[in-house]
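Hi, here's the filled form for the chain we discussed.

Project: internal
Contact: R.S.
Residues: 728
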Amino acid sequence: MPPPEPPKIDELLKKYKQRIGKELDLTPEAAVAKPTFSREYKQFKKEYLPKRLSFYEKACNISGRILKLTPDKKKAALMQEDLNTCHLNITPTGVLSFAVLAPLLIILLGSLISFAIFEALFFVVFFLIVGLVIISPLMNMPRYLANNWRMKASNQMVLCIFYMVTYMRHTSNLEHAINFAAEHLSPPLSLDLKKILWDVETEKYESVKESLDEYLETWRKYNKEFIEAFHLIESSLYEPSESRRLSLLDKSLDVILTETYEKMLHYAHNLKSPITMLHMLGIILPILGLVILPLIVNFLGEVKWYHIATLYNIVLPIGVHFLGKSILSKRPTGYGDTDISEENPELKKYRNVLIKIGGFELAINPLVISIVIGVIFFLIGMSPLLMHSLDIPDIGFFGVDGSTPCGYKYCLLEYRQSSSELTPDKIVGPYGIGSAILSVFAVLGISLSFGIYYKLKSKNVIKIRNKAKKLEDEFASALFQLGNRLGDGLPAEIAFGRVAEVMKDSVSGSFFEVVSSNIRRMGMSVEQAIFNPKTGAIVYFPSKMIDSSMKVLIQSIKKGPKVAAQSLTNIARYIKEIHKVNERLRDLMADIISSMKAQISFLTPAIAGIVVGITSMVTTILGKLGGQLGKLAETGEASASQLNLVSMFGDGIPTYYFQLIVGLYVVQIAYILTIISNGIENGSDKLAERYALGNNLTRSIALYAIITLSVMLLFNIIAGQIMQVTFV
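And the returned structure, exactly as it came back:
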């Protein structure tokens, strides 16, 4: 009897795979239902994903459980791609459900609350229109968020390729190079790079190359030069010739720099028309409309101040904001900086106001100062309303005038009895010149509180960054010097001291002097002298580019001074090339940026201030004319035509409320235009944005206040003279 045939290897493998799969529940359904993410990725995402995105994520998931509306397959696929881009764990069903449920809640709650407060159908119709209008933006929210994410990520792409190339010149390892770039970049691109590595760790992909290629496909429609640069870096891994390998690495950086310049050139040329439209729709037409509004309001008693406030302080700013965001969404790959205080915990204290008392340093949160200043100014601005609610008597000045409620030529409050036939017993106001002047302080309180907060929070940090930027500008030549010393065979410990002597009157010289001093006096190694968390040179000059350059130096020194010298020489060349392209890009944007800055700092506040002054004069003339004709009617001296003229006038809008509406609109427009101009010029740079907001919100509103007060006083004096001559 022949011996039994042994089982085949394939059968054994199949048998044990089935048993392992059964025990570990490795069925395809389970794999789909339970996506695997590493604990580190979840923690990283929790720390760096903006809170507003987390809120949107929760809202969509809750809405999806309530309504469960499903889009068609084509839209769902595009939506899912956008959701994956910005790392949101949401389904297209949740997005569509939230886009329908949120507007319904806005319509119902907004209509009920506004009708209960104002008892008018205007806001019921307003919230109905708002609810219907926002359905489309909410459905397109994933695309908007993904575009915003891509803009922030593309802003870091030049630096990403720079870090990859810099690392791979001395160590040809793709995984280590991606990790090096992820450590030195900020979110969101650092999150993307870490996700590439984590997808390999969790065995979603078999290799780093496969994971990287899959990630690069997400940029195919948006940034081909980034893909091309990465493919050149990948190709360098397979080159047997060292010179050919280095040539491909250099080519990858050249590709992304050249394409960046060309795309930004087209963007700058195509930007003039949208910016002109933004200027016309956001500034010129609304302010021209403000000139006509007082006349309309005085002859149409149905129009109230809160109707104009709804249009000018809600609808128009939102429209300008979305128009500006659409302009920014088309911005190509560029350059951009990050908030160094976000990345370096040692610098977070500089967000506060630091006061040195003896040997002690007192840190005051800017929020406290801004709230105190804002509340004081705002209470001054609200004082006319408070005085009226407390029944404090009106105050008059500059001559007796029987046509005014206070009995003087000018009143502080000037509350009048309504001339409307519907509400004849209602008291309306304040129409007084004093109230109009005090209302400017309310606008100053709002603007200064935000402006001072942003300025104090960013002032110290921007000084440190500017110091580091100055070092970056000089750093290329400094690295050439250091590379030459290392190439001559000098140890790095001595080379730093030699370069510090040569460049002793420069910022670079100061940096190298700190390194040399740490080595000589404190006996530190080169790495400790640069990166020591307390006394290292990088603490005093926080810069990602300098930090990465020094880390490459530390790595390359281990391979010998010649390799280190060559690495530094190449880094210096890369820094010069990036700096040259950045300067050319700034030149392209110079005309547009200067135009927007002129609008923010001068044109908008000046035009708005003059409009408020003219409105104040018109309101004063119509008010005095109505009062004096009313006196004539009471005494029986008025003719039929004069009586008809009195009946034509409504209550009008008090200058007090009109100025608040216009002043707040100027604050909103200054805020929005500052964000847009900074985004065009610097990309996603939150520190520069905060610093610009601090300057613009204080300077432009201060100019607006000065012009408004001056024109208001001057025109009201003219109005008083006109009325005096008319009725003499």
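Let me know if anything looks off before we file it.
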